[in-house]
Write a structure and sequence with these properties.
CATH architecture: 3-Layer(aba) Sandwich
CATH class: Alpha Beta
Bound molecules: adenosine-5'-triphosphate, magnesium ion
Largest sheet: 7 strands, mixed
Number of strands: 7
Strand order of the largest sheet: 3-4-2-5-1-6-7
Distance between the termini: 15 Å
CATH superfamily: P-loop containing nucleotide triphosphate hydrolases
Oligomer: single chain
Number of domains: 1
Structural class: alpha/beta
Strand content: 5-15%
Number of helices: 10
């Protein structure tokens, strides 16, 4: 049965999609069967995997509106991972999917394919609305992706409240923040003061900070611009960081 790993944070631009993308490909490169799921109305994960979210493909929008099965909305990408295609039409999701039980659409759909994959990697929007709740309801392992700055630590409490809601009301009693992944680190932003602040925040949340930290690196933008994978641009520091994170993550998820 597939393990569902979710990358989340209601704060925007912290590296959720970048991480989901690289981790999905990294796991597939290890011979594991991976389904990447794009739950963000911006559909960035879909685009970066070389699929046009504006095209004719059946997507998560049709899945959520009951017009198709999950398998109809999954495509094989050149990167070797399957993708539950994202949709720009999800931008009104909070309005469209506001009925009781709408938070379970994703979890219910995943049941049909959970034996086809080793890992399901989920990218979420920078919001705490219905799409994030759908992701959290289905999650086995939750990583909060964050940049090392003052405002990032401030938003963590609010995120924790949403996790608590999921635990209590969305039938996922085991969910917790399994770890904080620091991305876009450089010498200027990882000062000892911010380090202390993040350590305190992790302690308060009862979670840990992954030992692997992802540095700021120009190769990320280059690879995304080329819609290629960071794995094609060899010998970059950021790739080393992500490889070490993937190792750490696998050890943890297998526990
Ligand atoms: N380690 C890194 N080094 C340099 N640039 C990075 C790094 N990680 C992410 N970026 C860049 O930062 C921007 C935001 O990254 P990304 O889209 O992954 O964040 P996000 O959290 O998914 O954003 P959103 O909340 O809007 O979905 C992108 O332009 C990406 O190329
Ligand atoms: Mg994103």
């Amino acid at each position: 049965m597939a393990k569902v790993i979710t990358f989340a944070n209601q704060k925007g631009g912290v590296g959720k999609t970048t991480t989901a993308h690289i981790v999905a490909i990294g796991l597939a490169k290890k011979g594991l069967k991976v389904l990447a799921c794009d739950l963000d109305p911006q559909a960035n994960l879909t685009s970066v995997l070389g699929i046009d979210p504006d095209g004719d493909l059946v997507s998560i929008n049709e899945l959520f509106t009951g017009k198709c099965d999950i398998r109809d909305a999954i495509v094989r990408t050149e990167a070797g991972v399957d993708l539950l295609v994202g949709s720009l039409m999800l931008s009104g999701a909070d309005r469209k999917f506001s009925a009781t039980g709408d938070e379970y659409k994703f979890k219910e759909a995943l049941k049909e394919v959970e034996n086809d994959y080793d890992y399901v990697v989920v990218d979420t929007p920078p919001a705490l609305g219905v799409m994030s709740l759908n992701a959290l309801a289905a999650t086995d392992y939750l990583v909060v992706v964050m940049t090392p700055d003052y405002f990032s630590t401030k938003g963590l409490k609010q995120f924790q409240e949403t996790v608590d809601v999921t635990k209590k009301y969305l039938n996922n009693p085991m969910i917790k923040i399994n770890g904080l992944l620091l991305t876009r680190c450089d010498r200027t932003n990882l000062s000892s003061m911010i380090n202390d602040d993040i350590n305190d925040a992790a302690k308060e949340l009862g979670t840990k900070i992954f030992k692997s930290r992802i540095r700021q690196g120009v190769a990320i933008r280059e690879s995304q611009y080329l819609e290629s994978s960071l794995f094609d641009i060899k010998n970059t520091g950021v790739l080393e960081d992500y490889n070490s994170f993937i190792k750490e993550l696998l050890k943890e998820v297998k526990k």
